[in-house]
Amino acid sequence: MSVMVDDPSVRTPLVLGGHTFASVSDAVCAPVEQKAPKWWVASFAVALSLLALLLAMLSKLVWTGVGVWGLNNPVMWGWDLVGFVFWVGIGHAGTLISAILFLFRQKWRTSINRFAEAMTIFAVMCAGIYIAFHVGRVWVAYYLFPIPNSMAMWVNFRSPLMWDVFAVSTYFTISLLFWYVGLIPDLATLRDRAVTKTRKIWYGIFAMGWRGANRHWQHYERAYLILAALSTPLVLSVHSIVSFDFAVSQLPGWHTTIFPPYFVAGAIFSGFAMVVTLMIIARKLFKLESFMTMHHLETMNKIILATGTMVGYAYAMEFFIAWYSGNPYESFAFVNRAFGPYAWAYWTMISCNVIFPQLFWFKKIRRSIPAMFVISIIVNIGMWFERFVITATSLHRDFLPSSWFYYSPTWVEVCQFIGSFGLFLTFFLLFLKYLPMIAISEVKAIMPEADPHHHGGDHV
Amino acid sequence: MSSIDQPTWRSIEEKEGDVSVQPFVDREFQDGASVLDEGVSRRTFLKMMGASLALAGVSGCGMVRRPKQFIHPYAVAPEGVVPGESIHYATAMAIGHHVTGLLIESHEGRPTKVEGNPLHPHSGGAAGVWHQASVLGLYDPDRLQKPTFKKEVSTQALYLDWLSSRLTDAAGDEGASMLVVSEALASPTSHRLLAEFQSAFPKAMVVMADPFGADRQVGALRAMTGSSVVPMPRYESIDCLVSVGADFLGVSPDALRATRAFALRRQPEHVRGMNRLYVLESHYSLTGTKADHRFRLKPSDLERALVQLARELLARAGGSGLLQSVVGSLPVKKVLPQAVVSAMASDLLSPNRTSALVAGDEQSPFVHGLVYAINGLLGANGNTIDYYRFPSAEFATSDAIRLGESGLKAAVAAMASGVIKTAVLLGGNPVYATPGDMGFAQALSKVPHTVHLTHYHNETSAACGWVLPRSHYLESWGDAKALDNTVSIVQPLIEPMGLSVSDVSFLASLLSDATAFPSDLDAVKATFQGSGSAKDTVWRQWLRDGVVSKGTPTDVPVPTTFPFTPTPVSRSGLEVVFYPDYKVLDGRFSNNGWLQELPDPISKLTWDNAAYISSFTARTLGVKTGDMMALSAGGRHVDTVVMVQPGAADGCIALVGGYGRTVDGRVGQGRGFNVYPLRQTGRSFVSGATVSPLGRTYVLATTQQHGSMEERDLAKQVTVTEWDENPHFAHKKHAFPLTSSWKELAYDEGNQWGLAIDLSKCTGCNACLIACQSENNIPIVGKDQVANGREMHWIRLDRYFVGSVDEPEVRHQPMTCLQCENAPCEQVCPVSATVHSKEGLNDMVYNRCIGTKYCSNNCPVKVRRFNFLDYHQRNPQSVAKRRQHLFDYMREPDPSVQKQFNPEVTVRMRGVMEKCTYCVQRISKGRIRAKNESRALLDGEIKSACMQTCPADAIVFGDIRDPKSRVAHMKSNRRNYAILEELHLKARTTYLASISNPNPQLVKES
Amino acid sequence: MTSQRVIGLLGSFPSPAAVLKAAESLRDAGYQRFEVYSPFPIHGMDRAMGIKDSPLGWIVVTCGLIGLSGALLLQWWVSVEAYAIVTSGKPLFSFQAFVPICFELMVLLSGFGAVFGMFSLNKLPQLYHPLFRKQSFLRATSDGFFVSVDADDPRYSQVETADFLTSIGSVTVETIEE
Q1: Which CATH superfamily is A36-450 part of?
Q2: Contact assignment for A156 to B800 by CB distance below 8 Å
């Protein structure tokens, strides 16, 4: 991972501004302990109203039927599955940053992993909403779980959707545990700093009586390491399995072996973009520039550049193989993507995902806050379109021209997607307000002062 | 209260007959409660208590409340009725002059499905779309229920008083002030009664006409020969056939007979080889889709082309007097290339092959006359074309009885002159469906006393004083005489739903002064006096067979004169042809949801009609599909919507009747555009029409948006010569061997069901689609949903255009569920809601389906249908449902429509995937029957609904493991192929490639 | 307060280095029942205190194997025994399709093993602990470094241990009451 290093001889400091252990705690805990700023209240109100919109759309959906969406006979999946894959994709950065970078001993991750993990969890919640409500009879969605029932019927373990059920729920659970375990020492910090009784009680309960004993630290570090080791293959498996939803079926444009790696790359791509977007806002609003340094952002942008290029390569490969395979249906599917009725979506995807990220080759842009903010948002738009292109464009024209049809969403689908951001933001704002958005103990551990040999203390 | 003391507590109160508990019982246990009322035996009582205990448990633990329902026990069980077992009764349905013998499936007295009567020569076991959909019409809640006078609900008694006063008036002037206008009736009894009425009131005028029908042809032949005869071609024995604008396979109600006979000769395996079909027509018709050579001509050119052909034939065969004299005098205009005409002529005249021409009902008398003469020349008359006496003409002996448009014209004149005081209208809808220049409506308004017997409140009844509900043929006694003079008894399946009157009773009432309507049964029996109807056994025999007697052809009448000239046309402007709609015919079926949603077999348009024009005409007019335009001719104009039709004749607009109803039921009203105002009396087509685009667009809901096959080898067709050269063309070589990476299942025991569809025979007539809809309780979804690609039809007729936009060929391909052995849909269903049966069926488990829709995405032929919005509840005729609990659905199909549902098929709810099941209910029914009779299933014993009704006999279902079965025999045919075989689906539905038989000389030309 | 039984001593240290050194000294002095508290894990502290490696790995492996075999068993039983229905003409036991769920359940149970194993090894949650009553100890989660010696340590003696702690650099020494 030499990309993380500008000049191997000199390491960029990860925490700026001459912090001490105490000042780190102060700085990170400040947003939690001060009363909510105006902008927070305002944006929380917005988030809540969007959440209300989501709930309204879901009620309409359940009450009236899936027909409130624009789906039709060839195109049975539309914005619902697109939204699902979109959110799951976003959810990937968190675990990736926490787990994989942890295993690679990338110390710079410490000041952003908490943040990213939180994002993961809330994104996966949005994805869960989509996968649960895309079915025609949501009230019997529990059939999806292998529960003994009076019909004496069982699930079909050959279905990628069944794999999805297990993958997504496992992913959510593990991410949640991982996140919570990381939080425990910091919750203890908050508990010990608490001035009011309620704070003491609540943070106390969730800190579980953590007191930083070394025997605890020993098991704790081991647990954290193991969770990281588990999450790494998990995070790769989840999006591979999501890609199986498409790859395992035999629809031209879906039935592609390149999907698993390509989906994972795309997920990291969109996830990192989302992290950058949120970090830029958070570090500004909470004055945490000394923790979320330009070095962090630049490194993220490098990863965005790398993954974006991988995705671009995948697009090219798909086309090449479609032609090279000599399968008429396959080649038609891809030509139709680029030049058919949905060409507008395809080219939006290409420009957003392949062309714009290339700007990150320039250090200036890589280190310019406004530039990266815009590009990170563009990337997420592009990734949404990628999922749309894969889902709708492949479906709307398949084997028999007689069943070809065009699909366009209704206002319900659109509002539901907007509303899903409400769910995401509501939880995210609550997180920013009530939990330390930076892993305090981890940051302390990577400060030079934390190294017992710092003062050259001799010991046998 | 604990569940222990509950029963005791209850039963004591019950025994003491404490009424205060009754409500509880009512709520808990409906059926038992209604049993209770008629004193209970000890056993029933105990059984009931047991059940109510169980139910009490259920309702105790939830918000479940059963809807209130009552058992209606048979006080006296009808003979042969086994509850749960359906019974078939024979009857017949007349559409205009065309009669089809039918078998009606009845469940506990509810007619649920219409099937063809194999004993009836016209049906031969098949039923068309209109016949099959008529059962929905029976239960239509929009049908008139009570007599009305001037829009006020009245009684039959009051009507009969009014009638007798009118009759006494009419008696004064021998009926000169009396007019009877009836829709075309095929009933001998009705004919008898009309004749009797005529003799009772000699001066009264009786008119019988339909907007479209055989009248023009019969009239032409009568004018030539003096006798009213109707030609009935024996298509199975015609080797070379020329259709002159005749859609004998399509919109003609005679299509069933024609299709069966014609399809026999479309299979290259036939002993006499394939027939060859030339079609000259103005718009693309179903018959055109089966043509080996199709020539698109505007109507005036059609006449010219016929003259051209006649000349060529005469030149080659040497002329008979009449034809020579006619054609010789006519100016010649070469509309067809000489090469084509000579090729056709030599083909028609080639020795030891039979050949004939058929003229379309809507063609001009000139065409009919010429075709008749040419058939004489070809030796077809009496040989491959039989002539039968026109049944309706048999009673029209006096001049006062007029048939067809000329009759209507006379009637309008009489009404306008004011001599008519009383107008009796039987059925039909002349105010709406008569040519605009006739002015029927205005004339009718001059008549002080009017009565209309009608199924629905329509434009005509809106203009009448008395409006009487007309009985459906399934609720009334009657009889019917087909064009081939086959006579059938029409027997009712069910008591009239409203205070309706049958045609026969209505006509009989014109002759009697009774205070009640005369019995139609007596009237019918009276008609058959002397032919043995008195003998009960004979009568029962007739009822059982559905056939009284078969007809025999008459001698071919000799043409004496030829009083016709070509239709005069104006040089400028466009020509307009009219034809009845494939769905709602002349408009009589417009309130039938099944038919409204039936895709037009060519344009795949639903819920609307359109003006079909060629792409060239569209370019010249500067319009495109969906544009509104004002079309004017003869001083009248109609607004209609353009639909570009590949293969339509240039310079010609094809308009479809039956739409634009202003007064109709909830389903039909306001759909499409009324084109009748543009028709002109006595004209087969209109010329000099001008078009002005209106700048508006209109949404057309079609079930198929993409017409090209995209060079994909889906609906295979080759010429018979190509087939001889390469008999195995249907089986393509695959780049990779079709094998699975796992050991495949053998399916080598029990019955293994399969389906084979012969594309060579299939005409795309849609009969299978309606059969499937009525058998499987398939809902209609409405125009907006069709426009969004959500139609629910389980069987889909794919229509592909092959070749150029101007001169395309059409391929039909009925698409059922392929029932793949390696079904892609099954493995992706997370909840195992679609799985495979041991008999190779791809089963849907509705109550397990949660609606992920993944199966449909993975279905390569997209035959799965998803119930997006609970369409049974969204039906325009659905009614509010008594709400049981919060999450209950708020609407349900109208109770009367519910009676049509097939009790053997689940009514699916929303959010559930559904699809073709090969009529699994019929399979298990047959299996049970065979088991009870402890025997093996016979081949052909189980018929899927589509197979049963297919008039072309193109669909064959059966056990593919039984080598002697028909389906196995078809699948062993070299033409047999599996669609998308390279996906290794191992589909159970396979197709027999279509073979065309073009004229080698003309093939060389192109 | 004085009435309460003393259960140990708590010494505070200025830096990670100091507390590491102290731990080594205590270990060398033969103390076993002592504990070090720090706001973050200190590198090399386990060796300094002379405590043995965490057994958590074994717990996780066991859970993982249970998850793996359980998943395989469930899928086999459901597809072959309980609900043997032909699907897409594939064999009842199509193990290739069972791999993803086996993997997922293995990870899930391993995760449970890691987290709840860690809790049980650390005897968490433990909402009360005598140290929580010490005002100074609040800094243990911020920037305080402490060493506690249990009273029931064989080498423990109220006075000497206190002196010893001071001698190895403890800034303050307090007693911990029950």
Answers
A1: Formate dehydrogenase/DMSO reductase domain (1.20.1630.10)
A2: no
